[in-house]
Design brief:
The chain is mainly alpha-helical and 458 residues long. The protein has helices at 9-20, 28-36, 39-66, 72-80, 83-116, 124-143, 146-168, 194-211, 228-258, 260-263, 269-278, 282-314, 333-347, 353-381, 398-417, 419-457. The chain crosses the membrane at residues 7-26, 41-63, 84-105, 125-146, 158-177, 197-215, 236-257, 277-300, 331-350, 356-378, 398-415, 421-438.
């Protein structure tokens, strides 16, 4: 069954924004400030992150234009490399996203519970109930079809953007006067050299890079976008432009209002901005911002991840039942239900969330770099396409090479900062490769057995 073309430019742009802006921007600036030590390095890291993300937007705009299919993030690996690589990377992405979604929903429920429940009911049990109900509601919305879920996504994203812009306005209410001049200190206590700054920048870029991560999943929806070859490039670029502008502005607001030295160790930085504008009601406003960010994140993950599972089902990396759609709503019911179940199960074991995410960080770098590299292959295999009907990025191949080099640099920085997490991520990748080939062997034996049984019956 051919997918229905339902997503417009506005729909896709809002999906890009929600894939990227979750909880990170309300937390990671503290980590980046602590590692940067000086504001110049702090802002440089965010500017570089923004430029790299926009470069990535151009790359994935062309990939999406040349290869507009449902579950595109799986199929570019399968087509350009090997199905085992596609299965390993996408399997880990799906599991990590399920864990991330469970953890983020739990955090959001904590903020909401503190506002709507009396002190006696602000327990782990009730937070878990709120998180579970939230996920179930959006599961039901997605069962209605892509049109319903994309409309809800648009509303949530517009509200989220408005609230983030409101927080940025804190710079007009209070400016912090820095009393301590930030100084860059080395481990040895000696004067810093360029290599010290470079090492610090690399560690900063780990948090920055993953604050910008997520937009690559946009190509999972390629088969359901109207006039995909034109709309996908525009949607990715518009979405990233909005994200970069919001990130740079809110980081400027953090430094301006809180002060750079205080930012290094601050807690609830978004609450501080909200408090400057709304006074005592600031925490309630912050809770609304956090919970709406969570709702957008929940919905967009229920939009994207089942499509990767659908693509795996189409290519028999998962059982073919995952490739089934409802004839009435065009919904991938089995894939959607399975992913929601994974999230619900993980929700009850959320204490493992940090470990799962740490192990997958290195894979995010490998996945992004290797998926961007498929552009070199797609340029050859789709050279027959009409150049006027697709998007072609400028400065090729320079920008893709620089983009891939950047992610390799971040990957090396991750290894230097946490070798254990990096190696464990690679081990998990290898395990998924092994699982793929074992499942292929079993599937092949099953096909042979079924064929033999059919012959015997004749």
């Amino acid at each position: 069954m051919q997918p229905k073309k339902q997503l417009s430019l506005f729909d896709l742009s809002m999906i890009v924004v929600s894939l990227v802006i979750g909880m990170g921007i309300f937390r990671t600036p503290v980590n980046v400030a602590a590692k940067a030590q000086i504001p110049e390095l702090f802002f440089l890291a965010w500017i570089i992150g923004g430029l790299v993300a926009y470069c990535g937007a151009l790359i994935y705009a062309e990939i999406g234009s040349r290869f507009p299919v449902t579950g595109g993030y799986y199929k570019i690996f399968s087509t350009c490399y090997h199905p085992s690589v596609a299965f390993a990377i996408n399997g880990i992405v799906v599991l990590t996203n399920a864990a991330s979604m469970a953890g983020v929903t739990l955090i959001g429920s904590e903020y909401l519970s503190s506002v709507i429940f009396p002190q006696a009911l602000q327990t782990d049990f009730y937070r878990l109930i709120v998180a579970g109900i939230t996920i179930f509601i959006f599961y039901c919305i997605n069962l209605l079809g892509l049109k319903a879920s994309s409309k809800v996504q648009n509303i949530l994203t517009v509200i989220k953007i408005t609230l983030v812009l409101t927080l940025i306005c804190a710079i007009f209410f209070s400016g912090h006067t820095e009393t301590i001049t930030p100084i860059f200190k080395t481990a040895s206590g000696s004067l810093p050299v360029w290599s010290d700054y470079g090492r610090a920048l690399g560690i900063c870029l780990i948090a920055v890079t993953f604050s910008f991560a997520g937009y690559t999943q946009t190509i999972n929806l390629g088969g359901e976008v109207k006039d995909a070859k034109k709309i996908i490039p525009k949607g990715i670029k518009v979405g990233l432009f909005i994200i970069i502008a919001l990130y740079l502005l809110i980081n400027y607001a953090y430094v301006k209002v809180i002060g750079f030295e205080q930012l290094k160790t601050a807690h609830s930085i978004a609450a501080i901005l909200a408090g400057k504008i709304f006074g005592p009601a600031g925490f309630t406003i912050l809770s609304a911002v956090i919970f709406l960010s969570v709702l957008g994140y929940v919905n967009v993950n229920l939009l994207s991840n089942p499509r990767a599972m659908f693509a795996m089902g189409e290519e028999k990396a998962l059982p073919s039942v995952f490739a089934q759609k409802s004839k009435k709503t065009d919904v991938m019911v089995v894939s959607l239900t399975t992913f929601t179940a994974l999230v619900m199960i993980t929700l009850f074991f959320a204490q493992t969330f940090d470990k799962i995410v740490n192990y997958s960080i290195i894979l995010e770098c490998i996945g992004t770099a290797s998926s961007a590299a498929t552009l070199f292959i797609l340029r050859r295999t789709t050279a027959h396409l009409d150049k006027n009907s697709i998007y072609m990025m400028k400065w090729y191949p320079v920008l893709p090479v620089l983009f891939i080099a950047f992610y390799l640099f971040v990957g090396i920085s991750i290894y230097q900062d946490d070798p254990s997490a990096a190696m464990n991520g690679l081990y998990i990748f290898i395990v998924f490769i092994i699982i793929y080939f074992i499942s292929k062997i079993f599937n092949k034996k099953k096909v042979i057995a079924d064929a033999a049984e059919g012959t015997a019956l004749k």
